[in-house]
């Protein structure tokens, strides 16, 4: 059972809980911390105005209100306004887990019974009907207000899922506190970063297959290059490529095209961006970001920690870096269609005059890359002014997270196209590079090992390659970066 303590939730914890739901619990220490924060918040509210408890919200911040459970319910109802399609179950699960863990940290001022009800919801997989629209990256108000209304029993769970096992009353200080989080964005970001991390590693294996198919020059990955490119990601790619190149035969050329020669520099940047994005997601998922913070240890603070600038910038940079690396994948695929590099027939044809071979595989990769480039448009460039001008900025991390999620399938499609061509080339050559022998055996098991090389519809090959590329990192012994 996953135990939440508000400080040690990992990216992999979020992904596992989202895709393989099961029971969760809150540690006794964390629940005691929540109870202490709740008691402190009550004391503070008796002594001074507290945003969202004794005042309105947004531009209504200067209006005093009577704190009551009915007022809390009205706030939740109004803020549950949303639009668009319902989110996939795994995305909602990720949101709920992140929110529960954040509330287990110090500073929410929330009634611990609300946290108990949320944890019960997660354990029962009683998912709220969260829709796509309603967030601009300064708290997922609509998604979390909808969740709160399900916890109160006012709204049902999403269709075809269990009802919540327990309902709870939201008091005056619970409504805004519960909504004051980017948990939905963080859940999406966790899923996207984990999937991209996997593909970033797979890309190294695919590039190594292409390297052997065109008899590449290993000097581009040598130790001197680690000195010339003094960044952890590039150095890790160099080491991995040297491992997968092995004692390769003499290079066919003094230096390769950029698809191979600049692979450490371009793909190394992706490795580093993945690492930083994971750091940001994990840090934010283990931190109380409610406004205001009400901590018995640290005191009271009205603040802007809900603004997800770190998150949007890390995700924008990651998606852009992925698009740049995918361009090199297409460049290597182009090399694989050219007899001057492979020693085989054009487009890796079977010998039939004017055979198309993998010609349209290259088109498929170019199409996916075009979509990936569009997704790399920085979400952080968006601007907005809301709530009568008092909220004059927003991170739009929601958009960045969705773009990163969508980038996963497009990047996978590009790599799959390169994989189809590289393996086809090696089979035509009768080559079985020793460092990749296990990977090739694994691929043989998946497609039978001797596909028909005649011109035919390669759709099934590409779809199988999309499935296979995810498992490639497990077939090699490579010192992946942490």
TrEMBL record:
One of its GO terms (molecular function) is ammonia-lyase activity. Gene3D superfamilies: Fumarase/aspartase (Central domain), Fumarase/aspartase (N-terminal domain). The keyword Lyase applies. It comes from the Bacteria. InterPro entries: Aromatic_Lyase, Fumarase/histidase_N, L-Aspartase-like. Signal peptide: none annotated. Keywords: Lyase. This is Histidine ammonia-lyase. It comes from Lapillicoccus jejuensis.
